[in-house]
């Protein structure tokens, strides 16, 4: 995926809703972070998680028109996914760090800061999230110190969520050091399998 494809979808959403500003979250938010080429693993998603910045409730209307199984998806190979600002687990102040990208046709995309996206992905901690994070770390798109700091400003409410996220980050810290010294392997991240997934008092 690339910015031109994002713009094509947002343009159709603009025609439908008369809104010009849209917030992009999820994996494809990385597209707004840099003009450098991104790792393929960070941009291979075909679902674009976004909502109108000033009217989030219309995200479902957009997804109904341009979502999975739509004519738009059949024609272009990607689609809109309905999300809301409350969906991802994010650090306090994430709205102030949105990355603005103005397109020539008047559409404006507000991309979630990639380190904020990483916080959300650590909270969910699926294998695809870990692969996205590691690709970003290796390409110097993401910063472990920044992500770790933002953990402190993030409320993780699910049982074991904070413990799982912190463990995954420590695993990635070791993995990244190994990669940088040429000792690392290409193995996929290990899954979190605690004996007791109840939150600890220290969370």
Features of the shown structure:
203 residues; alpha/beta; globular; disordered C terminus
Note the beta-strand portion.
Answer: 5-15%
Mean pLDDT metric: 90
> Helix share of residues?
40-55%
Class by SSE composition: alpha/beta
Describe the global form: globular
How many strands appear in the DSSP assignment? Answer: 5
The span between the termini is 37 Å
Question: What strand line-up does the widest sheet have?
Answer: 3-2-1-5-4
Major pleated sheet: 5 strands, mixed
Radius of gyration over all CA atoms, rounded = 18 Å
Listing every helix as H and every strand as E from the N terminus to the C terminus, the arrangement reads HEHEHHEEEHHHH
Low-confidence stretches: 191-203
Number of discrete helical segments: 8
Could you please describe the fold and organization of this structure?
There is one protein chain. The longest helix is centred in the last third of the chain and has 20 residues, at 161-180. The chain has 203 residues and is an alpha/beta fold. The chain has helices at residues 3-17, 40-43, 59-66, 71-76, 114-124, 127-138, 144-151, 161-180; strands at residues 21-25, 47-52, 79-82, 99-102, 108-111.
């Amino acid at each position: 995926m690339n910015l031109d494809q994002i713009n094509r979808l947002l343009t159709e959403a603009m025609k439908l809703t008369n809104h010009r500003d849209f917030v992009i979250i999820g994996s494809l938010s990385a597209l707004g972070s840099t003009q450098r080429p991104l790792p393929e693993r960070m941009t291979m998603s075909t679902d674009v998680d976004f909502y109108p910045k000033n009217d989030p409730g219309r995200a479902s209307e957009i997804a109904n028109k341009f979502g999975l199984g739509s004519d738009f998806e059949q024609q272009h190979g990607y689609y809109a996914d309905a999300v809301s600002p409350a969906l991802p687990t994010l650090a306090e102040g994430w709205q102030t760090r949105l990355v603005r990208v103005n397109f020539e046709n008047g559409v404006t995309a507000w991309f979630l800061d990639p380190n904020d996206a990483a916080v959300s992905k650590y909270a969910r901690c699926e294998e695809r999230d870990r692969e996205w994070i590691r690709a970003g770390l290796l390409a110097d798109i993401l910063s472990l110190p920044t992500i770790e700091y933002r953990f402190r400003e993030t409320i993780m409410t699910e049982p074991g969520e904070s413990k799982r996220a912190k463990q995954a980050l420590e695993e990635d810290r070791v993995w990244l050091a190994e990669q940088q010294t040429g000792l690392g392997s290409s193995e996929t991240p290990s899954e979190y399998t605690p004996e007791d997934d109840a939150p600890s008092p220290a969370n």
